[in-house]
Design goal:
Blueprint lengths: L3 E6 L4 E7 L3 H10 L10 H11 L10 E4 L3 E7 L2 H19 L2
Antiparallel strand pairs: 1-2, 2-4, 3-4
Amino acid sequence: MKYVNMFTLEQYNSISICFNVGHEKPMQIGKIINKNDEEEGMNGYDWQEYIFNKVTDKDIFIGMETDTESGEVIIRYELNDENKARASKLVTLIEDIIENY
């Protein structure tokens, strides 16, 4: 499993993004970003705040629901074409942060 995945769940009329912050790559980047506590790195709440602060297209937040825990960030949208585009942009942003940090 990649550290970030997007799922279309037609039976629930939703799009879900799952960002596993416990995956090796995000853990390593989190330790670099969170220099105050290199043992801990960053939890899901820290990552959510960090990612949201990097969003330049504020439309990404329209219709977004989050369910963040210490080990993951879950983001949900209602299933429609506009939200698919928003979710795809957000996945690309997360991948860009992790791959190009």
